[in-house]
Amino acid sequence: MKTYILGLVLLLSCAGFSQTSPAAGSSSAPTQADKDQATKRVEIRQLIELTGAANVSADALRQIIAPLRAGFPQVPDEFWDTFVKEVRSEELVDLVVPIYDKYYTREEIHDLTMFYRSPVGQKTIKILPKLSAEAIDAGQEWGKTVADRAMRKIHDKGYDKSSSLPAAGPPSGR
After folding, report:
1. Contact between 51 and 116 (Cβ < 8 Å)
2. Which of 34, 83, 113, 139 would give a disulfide with 30, using CB separation of 3.0 to 4.6 Å?
3. Is the dihedral of CA 97, 101, 103, 105 positive or negative?
4. 10 Å Cβ neighbour count for 160?
5. Is 159:165 a contact under the CB 8 Å cutoff?
């Protein structure tokens, strides 16, 4: 059971996220650059709050628990219940602030904030979860279509669905 829980934690964790921390032993007074960096990070947190990105991500994580729970029936219900209770949006924000900081300048964070405060930005915040879900569904359907086309083409060349070997039959016209 520990293996299943470990696998689940690895599946659900955001291993790619990393936090940066100040260098150990740094005791000098904050420089202007440090103050600017701290202000930028506050602005990033405000942007994330404005867009509701952390809450949407935490809600999505909670929603995937049901299929995972069904897929891992050997994991006790107590684990799943505790897991859901342990999801905290503020922890996710702490993880993603350095990522926004890495890819956006302070001016870009300001521009994004202004956009998301605009009417079209507010509309984007409201419809993005539905738009993303529909785009994922469309992408899955498209993937199936492409896979079917590819399967037909290799089947026409003599390959059988159940193996990677050519199907028995007369050789193709070489």
Report:
1. yes
2. 34
3. positive
4. 13
5. yes
In whole angstroms, how far apart are CA 93 and each of 17, 20, 43, 166? 11, 13, 12, 52
Q: Give the C-alpha distances (Å, rounded to integers) separating 86 from 4, 8, 48, 67, 81.
A: 18, 15, 20, 18, 9
Type of residue found at 59: D
**DSSP structure class, residue 166:** B
Report whether 73 contacts 8 (CB < 8 A). Answer: no
| Structural Rg of the chain based on CA atoms | 24
Could you tell me which residues come within 8 angstroms of residue 124 by beta carbon, excluding any fewer than 6 positions away? Answer: 116
